[in-house]
Amino acid sequence: MTVASPVTPAQPAVLETPGQHMLNSALHHLDTAAERLNLNPSLHRVLRSCERTLTVSLPVELDDGETAVYTGYRVQHTSVPGPCKGGVRFHADVSLEEVTALAQLMTWKCAVLNLPYGGAKGGICVSPNTLSENELRRLTRRYTYAIMPIIGPKKDIPAPDVNTDERTMAWMSDTYSMLRGEASQEIVTGKPLILGGSAGRADATGLGVAIIAENTMKRYGTPVEGATVALQGFGKVGYWTAHYLVRDGCKVVAVSDVSGGYYNPQGLDVEAMLAYTRTSPTRTLAGYAPPGVETVSNEELLLLPCDVLIPAALEDQITVRNADRIRARYIVEGANGPTSAAADNILHQRGVIVSPDILANAGGVTVSYFEWVQGLQAFQWGLDEVQKNLRRFLYNAFDQVCDFSEANKVSLRQGAFMLAVSRVAEALDQRGIFP
Ligand code: NAD
Fold first, then answer.
1. Cα–Cα 20 to 30 A to 32, which of 145, 167, 177, 431?
2. Span from the CA of 256 to the centroid of ligand 1 (angstroms)
3. What share of the chain in percent tops pLDDT 90?
4. pLDDT band at residue 5, thresholds of 50, 70 and 90?
5. Per-residue model confidence as pLDDT tens digits over 87-98
6. Residues 51/76, Cβ–Cβ less than 8 Å
7. Residue with CA closest to ligand 1 atom 32
8. Which of 94, 161, 314 to mutate to test the pocket of ligand 1 (most atoms within 8 A of CB)?
9. In CATH terms, is domain 50-181 a member of 3.60.70.12?
10. What is the pLDDT at residue 213?
11. Domain ranges of the chain
């Protein structure tokens, strides 16, 4: 008699690397959602695994004539809902486990937003600041060549992520088009406007975080006008989030970046802070000290009294070490994975409302989707069209996640995962297992 293997095989107890920690956490969210949904074990087993995993070795000639060899990855979690979609990061900590976890999270994020994509992620284990621009270009082109067999505008569409940007996407798009011998700009999103990028892509994630923060306050009874906000991270996501929240009447009382935190209970001037980073020698807020602004540590920032706390920098910032001391009523996750699973339980028990990353920071992938649609149509939308559609997608997703979570008496994170897993599982069930 054949015995079906359990859905979650027993794992040996070993010390986790950060990548394994991320992967275990992603699987934990899937498993919890599957259990609550009473998901068919066969579908659950398929969703726990990744459809395709590619590891590539990337020899690159350096400017001094030596050859260095880097390792790159592209992981495709599932192509059941549509082509795979996900960013490419260049970072020394990139590992197969981390890329796999991020590919899975992309699936759930796209499903929450009802985007017709499955999740993917890519990365190269490299410190990009150790390479010249020419070396980076050669590395990017070699990586694109190496993953070319599995990417394509209808197969898998990469995008920027940590330490990659529109210049990286221009090189990827050019390499792919050259090797195919035909214009294929829709192979990536996050391109420069002149090469088929979309209006509104640069600020889309921050605008999305601000929209979700405001909707969360409105739904759970806090006026947006005058609401106090503390933000960790002042990069692409953090700055734009602050910009839109201030425009809509919130008071940003604390902001931090890698140099530390800056606090003024009367409200900070975020545009002046951005201007400061443009000219400061380290391009950070280090030394920012106008009257009324006091410095706090990044850890202290998380514990400040405020209505909304927005982690928009790194993963694993809210953990069992600080979850019971957080004083914000709402947490809106601009970063990916800023809250550990254990901290999430503590926050839920304390009544802190957490708008999870797979909903709150999905504005970027949503406008990436619009860019892909524009590319396929060879037609460019105006900014109004982009932002109108972004609002429509985010408002719908927010209402669906809240309604579902309230109906099932679970946290917004659990509700978002349950909704996402049920959608992808239904698509898988309808398609059936090939052959
Ligand atoms: P970024 O590199 O533009 O900005 C990161 C910011 O975090 C910088 O201000 C940096 O100084 C700050 N930072 C670094 N270490 C810090 C520390 N120890 N304490 C406080 N601040 C610190 O990156 P980004 O694109 O803004 O991404 C931020 C987060 O949002 C990441 O988790 C990323 O995965 C996630 N995210 C980004 C996008 C996007 O479109 N850019 C989309 C979805 C999710």
1. 431
2. 11
3. 94
4. low
5. 999 999 999 999
6. yes
7. 335
8. 314
9. no
10. 98
11. 50-181, 204-360
